[in-house]
Amino acid sequence: MILLWNPEWGYAKIHRQDGFAAGLCTVTYNQSRVSEARAVVIHFTDVTRELLEWENKTRNPDQFFVFWSVEAPSYLQYYNTKAKWYKDDHFFNWTMTYRRDSDIFAPYLEAGVARDIFSRRLKDTGAAVGVVSIIVYKPNKHIFQLWLVSNCNVLYGSVERMKYVDKLIEAGLPVERFGKCFNNAAEFNDLSLDRLASYKFYLAFENALHCKDYVSEKFWQNGIQSWRVPVVWGARKEDLLRLVPENSFIHADDYETAADLAEYLIYLDNNTTAYTEYFNWFGSNYTTEYLATLYERTAETLLCDKLLAKPEPKIIPSVKENIFSSESEDCLKEKTLYHVRY
C-alpha cells in the first residue's frame, strides 16, 4: 500500500481516486491507514512542523517517506518564505520530482498522455499504416503566437519572461496574450476549439530560469499536445534534449537577441515547409522508443516497483538543502536579483 498523505494541492486527479492500482500496489488517501502503508508520499505543501514531529514519533522503521513536488525550486523557496517549510532533517527517505536524478521520476507528462503523443505518427494524417516518416501539419493553423500566463511577478523568472515577451512584441512579433496577468482569463476560456486549434506556436516560457529538468505543462499540454510548436525560454536546452522530442521546439537561447528570435518566427510563419519540419519527429523511431519508455510508467507505479525491489534503507539529511544546494543561482534568484541563503 502507498499512502498519498494528501492529493496534490488538495485536488485528486480523475484517475487518482482512492484505491487506484499502481502496478502491484494500491494507493490510498486514507491517513488512518498510515501504519499499513509501505510508503507515505507527502506533498511539499504538507511539510509542516506538526507533521514532521508527529510522524517522527510514530513512523514504522520499515516505511519509506517520500518528498513529493513538481514545482521549480524557485517556487519552493518562495513558498517556504510564506508557509515556513520547517527543517526536514533525516525525515525523508526518497524524493519524487520531475528531475531525472530523483528517486522516483514524476514528470509533468502523464504516462497515458505520452502513449497518445508518441503514437501520433499514424494519427490525423490519413497515411497508411507502416509509413515511417510523416509530416504532420494542420492546415487550419493561421494565427501566430499564443501565450497564457497568470504568474506575472511572483518569481524572478516570472518577471524576466514578461520582459522577454515585451521585447518580442517590440520586434514586431504578433502575440495573443491571455490570463490573469492581462485581466482576460475569461476571454481565453470562451475561445472556440477551432480558434484554439489555429495557433501555430505556443510561448512555453517557464516561471523559473535554468532549473534542472524543469519542463512543465507549458511545453507538453499547451504546446505538443495541442499541435503547436513550443517556443521555449527558461529550461536549459541540454535538459530538453533528454526529455522531449528532438527538433520539436524552438529555444530562445539559440538566438542572440529577442529580435533575432522574432525574425525567425516570422520567417517560419511565411514558410510552410520550414514550419512543418518541427512535426517530423512524429515519424522518428528514436522518439517513439526512447521517450515512450521514459514516460511509460506513472510515478506511483515507479514507486511501487522500487518498493517491491526490496531497497536498502536510506535517509536524506535534508531534502530542502539538497534541492537548493544543487541548483544554479539563476534558478534560485529572487526578484531583487540576489541569491537567497537558505
From TrEMBL:
Q: Which family does it belong to?
A: Belongs to the glycosyltransferase 10 family.
List the keywords (alphabetical).
Glycoprotein, Glycosyltransferase, Golgi apparatus, Membrane, Signal-anchor, Transferase, Transmembrane, Transmembrane helix
Record pathway: Protein modification; protein glycosylation
Identify the residues that the record assigns to the Fucosyltransferase C-terminal domain, covering every copy: 140-320
Kindly report, in one word, the top-level EC class recorded for this enzyme: transferase
| Enzyme Commission number(s) of this protein | 2.4.1.-
Q: Where is the protein situated, by its record's location annotation? A: Golgi apparatus, Golgi stack membrane; Membrane
**Which Pfam families does the record cross-reference, listed alphabetically?**
Glyco_tran_10_N (PF17039), Glyco_transf_10 (PF00852)
| Single GO term (MF) | alpha-(1->3)-fucosyltransferase activity
One of the record's GO cellular component terms: Golgi cisterna membrane
Give the organism, scientific name. Ciona intestinalis
Q: Where is the Fucosyltransferase N-terminal domain?
A: 1-108
- Chief location of this protein within or outside the cell: Golgi
Q: Does the keyword Transmembrane helix apply?
A: yes
Protein's membrane topology: Single-pass type II membrane protein; Single-pass membrane protein
Name of the molecule in the record = Fucosyltransferase
